[in-house]
Amino acid sequence: MGSATREALASARAALTASAVSGASLAVGEELFSASRVIGSSSQLLQAIADPGAENAAKVALVDSVFGSALSAPAQQLLRTIASSRWSEQDDVLAAIEEIGLRAIADSAPSGTGLEQELFAFGTAVASNSELELAISNKLGSASAKSALVASLLSGKASDQTVAIVNQLVQQPRGRRIGELLRHAATIVADEAGFGIATVTSAVQLAPAQLQRLAAALSGSYGRELRINQVVDPAVLGGLRVQVGDDVIDGSIASRLNDVRIQLAG
Known about the structure:
Helix content is 63%, strand content 9%. The chain is built from 13 helices and four strands. It has a four-stranded mixed sheet with strand order 2-1-3-4, with helices on both faces. The longest helix has 19 residues, at 90-108. This is ATP synthase subunit delta.
């Protein structure tokens, strides 16, 4: 992430928490998602908004002219903030709109909803069904068909917030696979709620007491609360593989055996 994008994201996050837009809601997040799809569908519009040489006032005026009264006041203000910022890359604009939309939706979820757990569960279900994964990820599939599929799978089984998030991800993947999309979204909604996620892969299901001790140890190491998403994969043979963000701690037997093979081959 470039320094310009880092600063611009900080401004957008601050705008989300500012008093003027304190009424962040599911609707605001969905409006930002919709705006992102419109901007992403027009290379000229995206280029104009991301143009570092353009005047901020001109970019804000462009956003207002395109979206007009289609956006609520909070969504419009957030989009103006993003448009008037300087971004390192064009795609960073779309990434920022997506992130602020995710955070707005996370803020709207009732306490205890567990959006990150719902996203993780959906990702697990998709990963275990190759036909479903193909239907969701197929580049030739229409956005409307994917949206309908998400609705049929999640409506009544997951929160409205999770349905809205997954609906956006499948309609505007921006070159990312569904598993990556869901992990990224879960990380952001967890961060907005004040904690991080550790994905732990083991050959067998860990006992609740083991998970609690592991969560406490990892939280102490990273200096913030971490909650565990567990993946059971017999292929690891034994031991644990832990991923927190970009950090990977691979203590699995499969990894050790692979290291031995590499040494023997050398």
